[in-house]
Amino acid sequence: MAKKTLKDLPPLQGKRVLVRVDFNVAHDPKTGAIVNDRRIRAAVPTLKYLTDAGARVIVMSHFGRPEGDPAKDAIYRLDRIAARLQELLGVRVRKVDEVVGPGVTAAVETLLPGGVLVLENLRFHPGEKKNDAYFAQCLADLGDIYVNEAFGTCHNAKDASMIALPQAMAAAGKPRVIGFLVEKELAILDQLLSAPPRPLVGVLGGAKVSDKIKFIESLLAKVDRLLIGGAMTYTFLKAQGGGVGNSRFEHDQLDVAGRLLESGKIVLPTDHVVADRPEASAATQVVEGPIPDGWLGVDIGPKTIEQYRRAIAEAGTVVWNGPMGWFELEPFSHGTRAVAEALAASKAVTIVGGGETAEAVEAFGVADRIKHVSTGGGAFLNYVESGRLPALDQIEDRKTP
Ligand code: ADP
Ligand code: 3PG
Ligand code: MG
Has residue 398 been placed in a domain? Predict the structure, then answer.
């Protein structure tokens, strides 16, 4: 069912609009400095639309997983993020140091039409992760309208700002809509799920089979071929009885991997970059066939790159999740880079999702040439798996005439 969007709202002049965004940006874990601001950039069109329409915009987000004590977790305050938002929006952005309370209420009261106020990290309040109804009511009292623009958080079923807050708004008869980013994410994923130009090629890598079993199962039901890379390769190879040397694989997933292979759609790498130890300075070689003892797989090999490049070039739609190797280390990044470039060069509808995968695509400078790079990790995987997300159930349906 289509959801109501910003365009379905009554005139916004002077209205207090609560916008839940996902500004949980990639950051330096020691200092909190922003490493990649794409989740902030992605919300700018919605925020600009609202300020241009004369709304009083209240921005809410979580950042990281703080324990709840702002003094201890000062790096997770939203000051830096609010400053970055101000640069991107080009209008003054105010920031308060609390999530709710008299100081916040006063700041909202003095917020002028077209103004933007950022609340403190929602996860500094113990009510956020408990889906607490009282906390949600305090947030609801600050606004006249609720906008969900936090695609990356839509899979969380117990975050008060995603669930209990829109429920409190509903109880008061206040509108609940999605923003432009969520609308765009859903449109492309709905196309992927319902009517993808064929052949539909999935590219799947990353850390573990166990993280993604349901995702792999639903992909297999839809794709024509599923190209495998990354660390999960070795679990599949082992399940086939192949030698994986010292590569890490998941003993407890061998049965699952064997069952998935029965689909006949899974394509495994035919050659591998292997290293003699898990370090960038390791000795490496390319091997075809079994991986020798004493060596571990760290990337797909050049023949596999060629084969995957061709499959991607011939596809009508490509959906990619999970790096092809240990791409954070330059010597092991070639497979991931080649796949990123193959997507960028392809005429297919190209879709990328997943935290690390999106970072890789940005790092290699090809994000602009890919049709859609999702801002979701878990949310992307969950939506592809099930076609629904708990937070979206709280948004009003658009009634078709
Ligand atoms: P995403 O966040 O895009 O869904 P994952 O979280 O599943 O992706 O996996 C990403 C991680 O997997 C990366 O940090 C990458 O270094 C790691 N990885 C992929 N292949 C290998 C490999 N062969 N050896 C070690 N790490 C790997
Ligand atoms: C994400 O990055 O996946 C979202 O921002 C949700 O964050 P969380 O995994 O800490 O709930
Ligand atoms: Mg990840």
Answer: no
Residue 3, SS3? strand
Q: How close is the Cα of 371 to the center of ligand 3, in Å? A: 21
Both tokens of 106, joined, read 């006063």
Q: Shortest CA distance to 37 belongs to which of 19, 25, 20?
A: 25
Ligand nearest to the CA of 378: 2
Q: pLDDT per position in the chain (401 positions), as tens?
A: 799 999 999 999 999 999 999 999 999 999 999 999 999 999 999 999 999 999 999 999 999 999 877 788 999 999 999 999 999 999 999 999 999 999 999 999 999 999 999 999 999 999 999 999 999 999 999 999 999 999 999 999 999 999 999 999 999 999 999 999 999 999 999 999 999 999 999 999 999 999 999 999 999 999 999 999 999 999 999 999 999 999 999 999 999 999 999 999 999 999 999 999 999 999 999 999 999 999 999 999 999 999 999 999 999 999 999 999 999 999 999 999 999 999 999 999 999 999 999 999 999 999 999 999 999 999 999 999 999 999 999 999 998 76
Give rounded-to-5 percent helix, strand, coil for the chain. 40, 20, 40
Residue at 99 is within a domain? yes
Range of the domain at 13: 6-181
The one catalytic residue in 208, 222, 369, 371 is: 208
Ligand 1: residues with CB < 6 A are 205-207, 211, 230-231, 297-298, 321-323, 325-328, 354-357, 377
Within this chain, do residues 374 and 271 fall inside the same structural domain, yes or no? yes
From 205, 355, 376, 377, the catalytic residue: 355
Residue labelled with tokens 């995957």: 308
Q: List strand residue ranges (DSSP E) for 99-257, in order.
A: 116-118, 145-149, 176-178, 200-204, 225-228
Say how many domains are in the chain: 2
User: What residue's CA is closest to ligand 2, atom 7?
Assistant: 153
Q: Is residue 146 domain-resident?
A: yes
Task: Give distance in angstroms: CA of 110 to centre of ligand 3.
Answer: 41
**Residue 39 is among the residues annotated as catalytic for this protein:** yes
Q: What is the CA(269)–ligand 3 centre distance, in A?
A: 21
Is residue 75 domain-shared with residue 200, that is, in the same domain?
no
Point out the ligand nearest to the CA of residue 320. Answer: 1
Pocket of ligand 2 (CB under 6 A): 22, 24, 65, 152-153, 156, 377-378
149 to each of 120, 185, 206, 226, how far by Cα in Å? 17, 10, 27, 31
The model carries a pTM of 0.96
Distance 155 CA to ligand 2 centre (A): 9
Are 167 and 201 within one domain? Answer: no
Residues 210 and 167 in one domain: no
